[in-house]
Specification:
Two copies of one chain form a homodimer.
Chain A lengths: L2 H19 L13 E2 L11 E2 L5 E6 L6 E5 L2 E4 L1 E2 L4 E5 L6 E9 L2 E3 L6 E4 L2 E8 L16 E9 L4 E9 L13 E5 L15 H10 L7 E5 L17 H18 L9 E6 L1 H12 L6 E5 L17 E7 L4 H13 L4 E6 L6 H12 L5
Parallel strand pairs in A: 14-15, 14-16, 16-17, 17-18, 18-19
Antiparallel strand pairs in A: 1-2, 2-3, 3-7, 4-5, 4-8, 6-7, 8-9, 8-11, 10-11, 12-13, 13-15
Chain lengths: 370, 370
């Protein structure tokens, strides 16, 4: 045992002793200011969240042997009362949106109290921990764009594929105006609903446009996992099938079915996590298609990567402060040194989760098509 | 005990004796041709459905005391194998879509194998029993309309309210063409997602339009439970708050944000169950607004009801053959006798469930705006 470890161990023992001497239980003091999560099903009180970011779940399961709240990779035991109602809390969670499940006697199931969100390759529960900046994606009394669910033909995959298309306020009325387009990708084991649902992309845009902070543009969100990918093998991922769907099928469909400005200058691509990797690969393979690139927690570009990128106007690279902000900042500094218009953004106090990416979209959108 | 009951009892005893003599178990012979339901989550095998319409559920719950499949008002026990996997079947169900849940040791939860649908006042599981006519709502290689998720301002309820708006194929490109509109309501404890999701309204329309069987029109689907209603007290339901939202707020919003033919002749209203009752009440209260009325398993009109309805072009009344088809047929015959253009439709072999209403929309849509 080295000196550093000894010091840590002494500290732990001191804390434990202090707890025993003062007569405190090992259970933490929980602040009793829980409120229902805004992601609950209509009329449902649980799950609730307190000001510490603890999530409290509750479910009636009178004949269960155990019930657990499974969130952030940890299973927290719930406690049964005399009516068969199980209740319990997680440790404090980061601000923003988190996927979770309940575990009832070994069955991993959605919480019937929560709305359902697609993540972790399944429709499951989600909970929202209040954030100081949640105002950026709240539903406000401002003009709202539409989110179109569309089915577009894809010859390469021999099927109709689904996408969601955000058209900004005014799109339906001003029928001669044309708009730039952002192609925005979800992450590994998410799908085309993730950005308009937990990502709140439409509300972020409605609010930015109402405040005059972003130019109105169209956002196209489709499913990016066109072949089987194992999480550990993302770097071996063959981008070709999705690149064909996106560049050769979806973009022409959007350009002929929506009033777009159909050129490189007015076309952006961004994505989160695996969607950032897809953005990076597709923009490198097809340098003339997009002019604004955004990687949210999904890799970086080097100056060498972008040498032949005529018409490139912006590179935006972001991540959470609990990820690897140093790597993002260094990459962007390197690009700036070589004269690229590169911007970094670090989401304070968040990790590899959707709040990082909502904030990234909020920042990125203000820089687009200007 | 009267003679009839004695006869029934003798029959039951004979059947039981026959079973014992022939050595059969009481468990029914199950046809082993189960296939995954098309409403399953991506990549999930269960629930499955066989050619009898039995639903087979399966879930791992190694430490559970019991697991049940809760469908059609009956709870069916699942059986545990040596790996902690619970499996079991329901009795045969009617063709079409059914809501269901799992019960794990007294906890009523969604099945993680199923996609989620809003019904019974909650997001829960759904399963699809193959129907001979499922072709009418299948996703085909035809031009597809869009389903717009919109948020419209409502002064009377002091909030932004959500609606889904189906625009037919061609709407986005032919920017000078205007279209008729159908306002289409969900049932009790469903919501504005029910018609575009389990109702498959957009696919029914895409297919009808591709075959030239229906005129292209817009469909608007919004939430109809603007005040608290108890199921037993539906007839005491105060229609005023929803009528204000629909007629005074949503219709003007749609007419100024979509390219509609904004007059009575080109405006229809229909609904299922409680939505049929809403349709009936609103059309009776506001006779000049709509020209085509549709009640799907949701009441009837008498000739007296419609006396002052200038501009009325069509009354369509439907239900399942397992509901009260006689009442529907009589009401329509009564209207026809008085010279109204009234049409009845009975969905063969279905009850008060969504397959009845998909078929009703399929029939009704072919008669609209012609």
């Amino acid at each position: 045992m080295n000196l550093k470890m000894k010091r840590i161990l002494s500290g732990v023992i001191l804390v434990l002793l202090a707890g025993i001497i003062s007569g405190q239980e090992s259970k933490p003091q929980i602040v009793e200011d829980f409120k229902p999560s805004p992601t609950n099903q209509p009329g449902r009180e649980y799950p609730m969240v307190n000001s510490e970011g603890r999530v409290r779940a509750q479910i009636p399961a009178p004949d269960a042997n155990y019930v657990q709240l499974d969130i952030g990779g940890v299973k927290y035991d719930l406690v049964k009362d005399e009516n068969g109602l199980w209740t319990g809390e997680s440790a404090p969670q980061d601000v923003g949106f988190h996927y979770y499940q309940l575990n009832i006697d070994g069955a991993s199931v959605p919480d019937p109290g929560s709305l359902l969100f697609f993540g972790a390759c399944r429709w499951g529960s989600g909970v929202e921990v209040p954030a100081p900046d949640q105002d950026i994606f709240e539903l406000k009394d401002v003009p709202h764009g539409h989110v179109h669910e569309i089915l577009f033909p894809s010859k390469s995959t021999n099927m109709s594929r689904r996408a969601f298309v955000y058209t900004p306020p005014g799109y339906q009325q001003e029928t001669s105006k044309r708009y730039p387009v952002l192609y925005l990708q979800h992450g590994y084991c998410e799908n085309e609903t993730s950005w308009p649902s937990q990502g709140r992309a439409n509300l972020i845009m409605d609010n930015l446009i109402a405040e005059g902070k972003a130019k109105p543009f169209i956002i196209v969100m489709t499913y990016g996992m066109t072949n089987d990918i194992k999480f550990g093998e993302l770097r071996k991922f063959d981008i070709e099938p999705f690149q064909t769907v996106l560049v050769d099928e979806l973009i022409p469909y959007i350009d002929s079915n929506f009033r777009t400005l159909a050129n490189q200058e007015n076309r952006a691509m961004a994505g989160l996590s695996m969607g950032g990797m897809e953005t990076r690969q597709i923009t490198l393979n097809r340098p003339g298609v997009f002019s604004h690139y955004g990687l949210f927690s999904g890799g970086v570009y080097s100056p060498e990567d972008l040498k032949e990128h005529d018409g490139l106007k912006l590179v935006f690279i972001s991540c959470g402060s609990k990820e690897r902000p140093g790597g993002v900042k260094n990459a962007v500094a390197g690009l700036q040194n070589e004269g690229y218009n590169a911007v970094s953004y670090i989401s304070e106090g968040t990790a590899h989760e959707f709040h990082t990416w909502r904030r990234s979209l909020y920042q990125f959108a203000q820089l687009l098509f200007k």
